[in-house]
Amino acid sequence: MRVKWKDLVTENLSYKLVSLFIAMILWLTILGRRDFTLSKSIEVEAYAVAGLMVQSQNTDVIKVKVTGPRNAIRKFIDSGLNQVLSIDVTSFGAGEYEIEIPVHKIDVPFGVKVVSIRPQSLRVKIVKK
Asked: Total domain count for the chain?
């Protein structure tokens, strides 16, 4: 009893094509879901109320590490070329303060998550003008 190659290929051809199609969709879906990680430097600027000024801050740049799908990371890179994180210190009076950098203020596209921020806080010295 000999089996022909043609019979093996053409037997249940519609089922084989559907199975191949489903396998390709699953493969592309899983391949596309792999998250990527990126570190990016973002400028930090603290601003005070009129009559006071920020005399010094310990850093002008923070390092933000984000993770997410490749397309979303690409949008983050393209959209945030000149991103500046503004820290509101208008509720503070004159003195030295350590302010935690708010994660929710970092503008990231949908699907991108902030993993870490270095440094996590900003030390500012506010003086009267």
From this structure: 2
